């Protein structure tokens, strides 16, 4: 899923000088699961904007903001969009871009899109995949170094980890440590010997 | 009138440094940092203080991710002073186009010795917002250098003329770190002429490390940072990956009335021990250059002719 997080409200407001009539559109998929663009968040956003003196003409939830057939299908989600002078989208950047392509008014994000991660056992997991277009995560026990090592090193760790923690952030596990533990667990440490050629970007 | 200009091109002469590696001499390299500015005089001064003892100077590449003058420029200027140079190249700041073109440039200016490394992440340095590159990792960069030597760039396009590098890389010396050893093996497999290590303080530990890589037959230059205080030792233990200063050494530093002198003494003892187990040393003096001559003499290393 696409991991996004709420922008500070002040930053959202900064984009709304002369905004006119505002419509707030949430997203029923990732942003709902992450509690950054579901129904309660859209309602709260409408309320906060009104409290800040803005004219909000409606809010709604798209089934998936990143997937609209046409302008008509967008309007079905919230007919008031047609009368809006500004749309605020509470979804990932993909959702915002699709909505923007269907309307002729300014569209502003209420969230930051952070990574392609996952959500399990109640925790958001960041940076699981870098969407590189050539998946070889199986060679690393399912722990993708392109996504999970900040340096994207494919042939082993840098010398910067300390006690299994990443050089970049001591709260973060070294991806290569995780790769090692996982490969050991599944009895495939032999995979570590393979030399990977540079990626094609 | 000819459009041809006279250029100084240094054809593939055997590197003086490589010859030293292949000789029986104990090899000594030292680090020189380019300035954070345009005046190279203090770097020249530091190099001048110890040049008679040192076989080649590693010119650091924005080390610790702190922005400094290009090692290519600094290396060239040191070369003009008659010093042998090992160009450091990190994978942090350049994509494969820039890495390859700088490598060709370095070689054309007579700097065939190259030591490559991943490079500290930008957030560790003084331009923390920099976009990190890491287009190639160090194993892949060694592969790219092989390609250049074979007359092709990394994409397979032919070169008009090709270099012949003396290739080095860095390593930690923890024998109980399988991933570090695995990566070291990969680097050796790609073809390498020397390793320079992170600072060594526990000689017994280092011997175990050397035993664990004895099948590779690659010259190893053991890293050395003379201690200046017990505080510095504790700081490195806590903050610098791959460095481990034992309690015994910290106690020695603490009980000494002249810790800087004690640090040099310890370092000299270590050099004497290291002469028995590896091809040479790589000194990282960290601003301590004026004391290094004394250190070498204490360790029984004398001026090279």
TrEMBL record, chain A:
Family matches, as InterPro entries: DUF5981
Matching Pfam families: DUF5981
Methylene-tetrahydrofolate reductase C-terminal-like domain ranges (all copies): 109-201
Descriptive protein name: Methylene-tetrahydrofolate reductase C terminal
Species the sequence originates in: Methanohalophilus halophilus
Lineage: Archaea, Methanobacteriati, Methanobacteriota, Stenosarchaea group, Methanomicrobia
UniProtKB/TrEMBL annotation, chain B:
Transmembrane segments: none
Cofactor: FAD
Pathway: One-carbon metabolism; tetrahydrofolate interconversion
Pfam families recorded: MTHFR
Gene Ontology MF terms: FAD binding; methylenetetrahydrofolate reductase [NAD(P)H] activity
SUPFAM superfamilies in alphabetical order: FAD-linked oxidoreductase
Transcription regulation among keywords: no
Keyword terms of this UniProt record: FAD, Flavoprotein, Oxidoreductase
Gene Ontology CC: one annotated term: cytosol
Record flagged with keyword Flavoprotein: yes
A biological-process GO annotation: tetrahydrofolate interconversion
Entry's family note: Belongs to the methylenetetrahydrofolate reductase family.
Protein name, UniProt field: 5,10-methylenetetrahydrofolate reductase
Organism expressing this protein natively: Methanohalophilus halophilus
């Amino acid at each position: 899923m696409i991991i996004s997080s709420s922008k500070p409200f002040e930053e959202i407001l900064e984009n709304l000088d002369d905004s006119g009539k505002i419509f707030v559109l949430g997203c029923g998929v990732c942003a709902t699961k992450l509690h950054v663009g579901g129904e309660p968040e859209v309602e709260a956003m409408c309320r906060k904007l009104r409290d800040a003196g803005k004219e909000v003409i409606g809010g709604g939830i798209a089934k998936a903001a990143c997937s609209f057939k046409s302008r008509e299908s967008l309007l079905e989600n919230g007919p008031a969009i047609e009368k809006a002078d500004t749309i605020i989208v509470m979804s990932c950047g993909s959702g915002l871009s699709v909505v923007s392509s269907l309307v002729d008014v300014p569209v502003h994000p209420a969230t930051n899109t952070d990574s392609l991660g996952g959500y399990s056992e109640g925790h958001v997991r960041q940076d699981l995949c870098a969407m590189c277009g050539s998946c070889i995560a199986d060679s690393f026990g399912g722990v993708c170094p392109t996504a999970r090592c900040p340096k994207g090193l494919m042939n082993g760790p840098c010398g910067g980890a300390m006690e299994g923690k990443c050089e970049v952030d001591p709260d973060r596990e070294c991806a290569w440590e995780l790769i090692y533990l996982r490969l050991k667990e599944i009895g495939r440490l032999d995979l570590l010997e393979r030399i990977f050629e540079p990626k094609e970007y | 009138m000819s459009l041809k200009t006279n250029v100084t091109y240094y054809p593939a002469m055997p590197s003086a440094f490589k010859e030293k590696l292949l000789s029986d001499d104990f090899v000594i390299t030292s680090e020189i940092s380019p300035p954070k500015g345009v005046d190279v005089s203090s770097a020249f001064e530091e190099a001048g203080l110890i040049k008679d003892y040192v076989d080649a100077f590693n010119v650091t590449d924005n080390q610790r991710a702190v922005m400094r003058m290009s090692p290519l420029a600094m290396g060239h200027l040191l070369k003009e002073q008659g010093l042998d140079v090992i160009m450091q190249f990190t994978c942090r700041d350049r994509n494969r186009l820039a890495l390859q073109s700088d490598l060709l440039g370095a070689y054309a200016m007579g700097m065939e010795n190259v030591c490559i490394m991943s490079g500290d992440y930008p957030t560790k340095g003084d331009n923390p917002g920099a976009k990190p590159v890491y287009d190639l990792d160090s194993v892949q960069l060694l592969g790219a250098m092989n390609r250049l030597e074979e007359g092709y760039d990394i994409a397979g396009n032919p070169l008009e003329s090709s270099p012949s590098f003396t290739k080095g890389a860095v390593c930690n010396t923890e024998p109980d770190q399988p991933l570090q050893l695995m990566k070291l093996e990969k680097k050796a497999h790609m073809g390498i002429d020397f390793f320079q290590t992170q600072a060594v303080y526990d000689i017994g530990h280092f011997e175990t490390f050397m035993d664990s890589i004895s099948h590779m037959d690659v010259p190893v230059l053991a890293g050395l940072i003379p201690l200046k205080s017990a505080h510095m030792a504790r700081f490195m233990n806590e903050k610098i990956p791959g460095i481990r200063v034992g309690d015994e050494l910290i106690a020695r530093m603490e009980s000494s009335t002249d810790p800087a002198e004690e640090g040099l003494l310890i370092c000299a003892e270590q050099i004497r021990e290291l002469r028995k187990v590896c091809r040479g040393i790589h000194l990282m003096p960290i601003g301590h250059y004026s004391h290094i001559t004394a250190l070498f003499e204490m360790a029984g290393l004398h001026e090279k002719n």
